[in-house]
User: Fold these one by one.
Assistant:
Number 1:
Amino acid sequence: MVPTEIKLHRKSARLELNYAERKPVVLSAEFLRVHSPSAEVRGHGRGQEVLQTGKKFVAIKQIESVGNYAIKLNFDDGHDSGIYSWEYLLELGEQQGSLWQDYLAKLHKAGQTREPLPTGTRVIQIKPIID
C-alpha cells in the first residue's frame, strides 16, 4: 500500500504516512533509525544485528524517493543507507508497540541507553585476558 502523503514533522521528529483507505502511520525518527533495514543495523544474517544506542535525539534530515516502492531516509547522525519499502513502513507501524518494547529490553540487557554519549566521549572495548 503506497501512502498518498508523507509529512516530516521536524519539531517532533516524526514521519507521518497518510493513506487513502487506512489510518495514518506515525513513526518517530528514533524508532525508524534503530529499525533501519540497512546491513549496518540488521547485519548480513540472523544474529548479526547491531544494537543501536544513543539515538534518542536523532532527526531525519532528508527523505528521498526510491522508485515507486520505497524511501531512503538521511539522518543527522550520518546514517543514510537504509531503504524503507512501503511494505516495511506499514509493518513497522503495525508492530510499533512490540518492536519498541523489544528494543528497550535489548538496551536494558546490554546495559545501554537511548541517551547519546556526551560530546567528546570515546568508547573503547576491552577484552579480558584469560590465562
Number 2:
Amino acid sequence: MKLTKDELFDIVEELESYRGRQTELITVYISSGYEAVSVQKQLEAEQSTAKNIKSTSTRKNVTDALEKIVRHLKEFKKTPENGLAVFCGNISKVEGQDDLRLWSIEPPQPLKVRLYRCDKEFVLEPLKEQLSPEEIYGLLVMDRKEATIGVLEGKRIEIIQKMTSGVPSKVRAGGQSSQRFHRITEGLTKEFYKRIADEMKKIFHDNPKLKGILIGGPIPTKDEFVDGEYLVTQLQAKILGKIDVGGSDESGIKELVVKSQNLLSKQEIIREKKLLEKFFETLGKNPDMAVYKEEPIRKALQYGAVDSLLLSKDLNKNLLNELRKIAQGIDSKIEIISTETEEGKQFFNLSGMGAILRFRI
C-alpha cells in the first residue's frame, strides 16, 4: 500500500537510526515501471558472490538478508505503481545475536532510481527527497538560440521542454542590408520570447504547487524577456530572480539551481518567519486562539480544535512524532520549524511547540 508522507517520515527516521557492524545492511530501490523479477534475479546472483565474504558473521548477515529480500520479491506479480524500496539487515545491537528485519515501502511519489547497495547504513536519499515541501519552482534558461524549461521539486530537477528559436546567426546572407537583417532577427527573437511565454503558461499557470520562477541566461537575453513582461501577469509576479548563467540547455538549468540556493533558502526562511509571526501575534493579541504548552496543546488536539500545529525540529523526537500523528488524525496543518533563525530559536526556547486554534476551548 502506498505510504503517506507522514508515514514515510516515520520509517525514514527509524531506518536512519540503524548502523551495521560491517557493510551488511542492504538497500534495494526498484524504479516505477521496472520489473521486480529482474531485480530478484540480480539479487540471486549476488547471493553467490556473498559466499566469498571472508568474515563469517558478515557473510551470514548478508546472505540471510539477500535470501529474505528474494523471498519477499517473489510475492510480487508486478512492481507497485510508484516502485518499491526494500531495506533488510541484522540490526541487533548485541554482537552474536540476530535481529533480521525487512522493510518494504511503496513511496508517495514514483521512484526514478534503481539501486542495490550493501553498506553500514541504509541509503535513504531518494526517500528523503520525497519528504521535501510540496512546492515546486519553475526554471527557465534561455538565450536567443534556445531555451530549456524545467521544474525543481525538492532536490529533483526535471526537464520539461526544450525549444529552439530559428533566429539566424550574425553572419547574414549576401545582399541583405544590415538594418533589414536586424529587423528580421529582432522580429524572430520576439516571436521566440512569445513562444517561451506560451509554453511557461501551459506548464505552470494552473499549477497550485508553483512557489516561484527562476530565470537564467546571458545578461541581455533574460533581461529582455523579463523586462518585456512576456509572461502572463500571474507568472510574472512569481519571478524570484534573474541569474547569470552560461548555458541555455540542461547544464544551464543545473547551474541556475546551484546559483539560486541562497535565494531558495531565503524563500523558505521567509515562509517560516511569517508562520511564526502569525503564531506570536495570535498569542499576544488573541491568547484564547493560540497555545504553546504540552498540556493545552494535547487538550486542543483532543477537541479537534487545532488548525495549525507548529513543532520545532529540535523537539524530542518521540513527542514530535506523537503530536504529529494526533494532528494528522484531525486534519490539522503540521509545520516543522527550524532553529536556523532567531524566531525559530525563540520558538524552541518558548517550548518548541505551539498551536493556532480553529475555535476557542
